Amino acid sequence: MNQVPGFMAEFERVAVVHKDTSDVSGVRDDLIALTVESQNLCQLEVVITGYNEDPRALYDVPEVRRWIGAIMKRWPDMLFWLTPGSLWIFLLSLNPEMVEALPGHGHRIAFDTEVIAHQVATTHVAAEAILREKGLDAAQFAPIHKTARDNLFAMYEKKRFGDYIVIHPKHNQPITYRRTV
Fold it and tell me: Which pTM does this prediction carry?
């Protein structure tokens, strides 16, 4: 199984319903700091709890789409940090016109690669500006950018959690960030 550096972050349904993105800020800050320190892309696997009994895919749920839209509005670099599985959910949530529900429980996905290429390019430019501001030069950014680009190709191949495991680069084990109430 392929290992990728980073961590998982768990967000509860109540946060999604209320478009509460406050926990995303700290998660994003940690991703940036770990990426700068290790000079490798540290990736995020997003886990949204509370929808296990819902037969819809997460990208079919209107409040999930709104929550992801709010995240992208506030942090336009967010797609850059995502694992292939999380990219799938985010991009289909941002582009519901690319998803057609089929009778039963299936979907027909018709990616508009021009739209996605534009969204991904925009997020990569934003992430590069952040990493440059944090002190990385072009040579240090190049392999990080390549990994993020490879994640997009892996997303198109339908790679998802289970095909890879996310290992925290400092702790060398899976770590899940979640709010403790």
Answer: 0.94
